Q: What sequence folds into this?
């Protein structure tokens, strides 16, 4: 019988997870932060938020043009939209609702702003969800504009000191620099390749380790917060053995992979055909832990009455440790540049 130390296993998984951070994006005019936790009084969870968690959000203006007497130079306003999700304890994939708290901050050239969401997201009690930050013309009232100079990231911390960091998704605007982005005057941020970049309807988890039980976060940008996006999770284990599961969700969810489907668990994957040499952490020539990868594709979005309103749903997401994990790490989901679709964010 082969024996390996659980402590060694946890340490190896932790190292793999924390080193796999997202990166490589260019600055844009709109940022999407896939998850935020705005805290809550210790011992009194609100809306499902674990006490003792908080998020530091940072946004940076990479434009170096100085302001002059006659010009604002590279300055911009940034409009924060905190989407606060009311969890449904009976179905975490279908929250009761998603409400928005918003505020505007100025950024001078080469400026960076970091905020604690528990203070900046001025809502009662603990909150969680996702965050959208959009560039606005500082000379006009709430006028979004093309300012492809924004970068951002978030750091989610626990009282225990464990944390994960994830970069924001930066979306460029093809509109000429300094011009309004609301081309169709509908009051929404349209991810259609005209106002901002289109979004994928196909995402990837490049790899997962079953014992880590990471949390999957998905955001739906098609329809309203009452509409359901049905997604297919196509999973391949470490022996290229195909598996699949489906899930419907509203607005936003964060759930551990084992809660999404039992096929992500170590016990289940051990029952499937396996590569005997993959993820050998005891260096004895035999595999120790189950791994795999996933593609996540929208099968369509339906309204509360069940009517199909879009054949493909626009999505973004991340895979993180989530609440309750003893292992830290997080990264954005990889995106398909082939399968893209229109989405929007109504504010």
A:
């Amino acid at each position: 019988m082969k024996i390996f130390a659980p402590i060694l296993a946890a340490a190896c998984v932790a190292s793999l997870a924390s080193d796999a951070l997202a990166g490589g994006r260019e600055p844009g005019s709109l940022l999407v932060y896939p998850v935020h936790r705005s805290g809550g009084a210790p011992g009194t969870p609100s809306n499902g938020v674990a006490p003792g968690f908080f998020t530091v959000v940072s946004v940076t203006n990479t434009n170096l043009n100085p302001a002059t007497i006659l010009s604002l130079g590279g300055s911009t306003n940034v409009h924060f939209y905190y989407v606060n999700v009311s969890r449904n304890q009976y179905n975490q994939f279908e929250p009761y609702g998603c409400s928005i708290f918003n505020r505007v901050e100025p950024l001078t050239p080469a400026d960076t702003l970091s905020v604690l969401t528990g203070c900046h997201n001025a809502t009662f009690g603990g909150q969680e969800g996702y965050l959208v930050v959009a560039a606005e013309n500082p000379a006009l009232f709430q006028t979004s504009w093309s300012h492809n100079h924004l970068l951002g990231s978030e750091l989610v911390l626990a009282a225990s000191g464990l944390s994960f960091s994830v970069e924001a998704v930066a979306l460029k605007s093809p509109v000429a620099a300094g011009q309004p982005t609301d081309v169709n005057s509908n009051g929404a941020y349209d991810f259609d390749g005209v106002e901002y970049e289109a979004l994928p309807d196909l995402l990837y988890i490049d790899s997962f380790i079953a014992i880590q039980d990471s949390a999957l976060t998905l955001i739906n940008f098609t329809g309203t917060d009452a509409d359901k996006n049905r997604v297919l999770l196509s999973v391949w284990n470490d022996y290229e053995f195909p598996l699949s599961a489906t899930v419907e969700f509203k607005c936003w969810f964060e759930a551990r992979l084992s809660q999404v489907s039992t096929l992500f668990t170590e016990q289940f994957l051990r029952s499937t055909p396996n590569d005997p040499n993959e993820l050998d952490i005891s260096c004895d020539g035999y595999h120790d832990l189950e791994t795999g990868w996933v593609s996540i594709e929208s099968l369509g979005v339906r309204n509360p009455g069940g009517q199909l309103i879009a054949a493909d749903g626009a999505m973004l997401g991340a895979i993180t440790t989530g609440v309750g994990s003893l292992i830290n790490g997080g990264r954005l989901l990889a995106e398909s540049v082939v399968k893209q679709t229109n989405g929007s964010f109504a504010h």
